[in-house]
Amino acid sequence: MSRKKKHAHHKVVATSPEHLEKKARQQLQSGAYKDAINNYKRLLKINQQPDYLDALGEAYWLAAESQAAKGLYKEAVNLWESRAHSCQQHSHLPRYITWLLAAGAYIKAIRIFNAPPVELNREEQTHLTAMIGAHLLAADQQNIVAMLDADSPLAKDYPIAKAALKAYCQGDENTLASSLKAIGSRSPYRDFRPVLNALLSLDAGPQEIEQRLSRLKPDSPYLALGRMLPLLQQEGALFIESYQKLGPAQQTFVATLQGWDKRQLRLLGDFRKIQLKGGDKALFDFIVANKRFFGEQESAYFCKALLPYLNKATGIFERHFGALSQAEKYRLEALSCEHRKDHYLAERSWRLYIDKLEMASPAEETDVDLKIALVLRHLNKDLPANDPGVLHNLETSLSLDPNDKASYLHLISAYKQSNYKKSYQSWVAAALQEYPEDIEILLEAVAAARTKNAHKKAAGFAKKILTIDPINAKAQNFLRSSHVAHARKQFKVGRLHLVHKELAAAEQWERNGQESGVLSINQALLALEENHKEQAKALLQTGISQSGGNLCAYLRLCTEALCVDVKPSALVSLMPEIKKISPNKTEVMLLVAVLQAYYEEGIGALLIDALAEISPILKKSLKQTLSETQWYNLAECFLTLEAYDLLEYCTRQALKQQDSKPLLVFYEISATLRGQQQHLTYNMHYRLVEAAEEAHDMNDLRTAARIEQIIKQHAGLPFADTGFDDDDNDFEEAENNVIEGIVNMIKSLSPSERKKILKDMPPEVKSLLMDAGVDIDF
């Protein structure tokens, strides 16, 4: 007897009207208009409340506005009509008529304008009359004029405005002048006069056009026609691209002004269709077939740009437009390889292109140096920033074309990060020579001078920045820290009167409300040195408050004390509560910026001692849950400072919360090596190789390059002692233990499980067992 299947009965959860109303309101506020419309319709089926109807009308209106803002006028029209039908709401009628005109529904727009469902006020009627007139002229809709009231200004003045446009197109200046005069000041076509006057000044340039169009009000419907006039000065592919972005009425207006015939208009229509659906080859063939219309030179330029994306089209191009030089063929081949993601062949083709350019005569190639420089910079786009090949390319490019600020900044940053001091300083000097008034370059010059302790020179650069940009915060901060640095020097040699002078000068560059606490802490140190203990305590309290009263304040206190050879405990004893802080994660991350600022001052060695003072509190705070980016920022900071104990602790804590990703492996092993590559073990090397491969797979080229740099630095060196003695059998014993473990595991299985695992066992494992004398059939 067969059992009948029990069918599951799905319980339908009813939604209360209150919940549905709340949901619809939220959707309306968040811009989910379609969902809001559906839910308000559901509410109206439950209860015909006026509030629901009003809300539905608002949802329809906002949805229509949203569609119109995207240029989807037909959709906006449909939504407005649904609103009128469902809610009996006809507000914003002028906007609806405007959308009808923009959508090309001229007949419908005129009918509604002639018999509006709600009364239009005088201002609305005037604006819509001008709007209809502009569309009638632009779209050449003479047949619709018959629908207008024959006595209306729209119908009566249309022939005059049309005659003026025709006279311009035919170059009939007399008829144009008389037609312009005939358009009265109250005519709906009156704003067409500035447009025609601007057309007459096309050769005078864009400023003259703009001046004549300035007579139009910002809301004038004719302003849109005027904004199209600069397009008439474009040529070839650029003109076609701009033309295709216009709406149907605007395209017709431009075609009229250009005097195009039906064949030319059809060609442009075909071009648009091929652009959208035909593909690159169809577009190439179309341009070649119609090169006379589009222009020989522009067609050649357009088709050449398509060659890298086409197969075997070079021959066709050369038959129609002439032979390509060998250099140009290499350039196109390089672009084609890049399109196919074949980066090796792409670089080879670019190098061959450079070789041909170098051998070319001035008659064959122009701007050779600039072209080579641009190619060399282009070759760097997918490579790590600090890659030696990248740096060489940039250096060569600047010898050919020194006017590229981005390349200077790239080299400066790379050599600064790699600690190549001589190269770093020389490229700052080269950039400064090329861009002596550039603020970004001058700031780099300030930083470079500080690393050499050339404080007066750095101050000169900072003052120069302030003559260009008087409120530049970085320059102001530097001048303040420069005076503080001088004060520290004078403090250490006992010239306390000069310390007062330098700190007073530094105070001039301290911005109200943005004090860092450095100045107050140094004033506290000075007061303490002069035996003014209470004053020192008060100043210290101010400095801690300005520093944030947290971990950053503790670090600043210790660092500033060490900078003047004072033990941090001398200050901490005045403020013992500073050692009882419990920083949150935000305060921990603020420490990174403070450390970086001190490091840039050139006092990195002292920071290690300062960090040792705050280390117990810092380590305790690092047990908090941090994001991956926060761990990386901390680790990078500690690596830069060579604070390896903290880096090791940081990576250990991070690995408790995060997966072991390539960058974390890099930090972990860097902490162990402590800058001594000879300590690299075989196990570390193996992990680095795996991490580099994973970084490449993730397209994290910078991390891959940093990992590979460690591997390269160790190349040729023996691996560090792993703990095994060459004379004992520890390694062999470990291998035997592994084999024994595998055998015991297999024996513990059932016969069927054993058969399956032996079948799937990798060949190398079988070989290992057989070499050890194990019968794998058991």
What does this entry look like structurally?
The chain is mainly α. Among the domains are: 14-89, Serine Threonine Protein Phosphatase 5, Tetratricopeptide repeat (Alpha Horseshoe), CATH 1.25.40; 261-322, no CATH class; 325-382, no CATH class; 429-510, Serine Threonine Protein Phosphatase 5, Tetratricopeptide repeat, CATH 1.25.40.10. Helix 2 (33-46) runs antiparallel to helix 3 and helix 23 (405-417) runs antiparallel to helix 24 (421-434). It is extended, with a radius of gyration of 39 Å.
Write the layout of secondary structure elements.
Layout: H1 17-30, H2 33-46, H3 50-69, H4 73-87, H5 93-102, H6 106-114, H7 122-138, H8 153-170, H9 173-182, H10 192-200, H11 206-213, H12 223-226, H13 236-244, H14 248-258, H15 262-289, H16 291-294, H17 296-306, H18 314-321, H19 326-339, H20 343-359, H21 368-378, H22 388-400, H23 405-417, H24 421-434, H25 439-451, H26 455-468, H27 473-492, H28 496-507, H29 518-529, H30 533-546, H31 551-563, H32 568-572, H33 585-600, H34 604-621, H35 628-641, H36 644-657, H37 662-673, H38 682-697, H39 701-714, H40 730-747, H41 751-760, H42 763-771
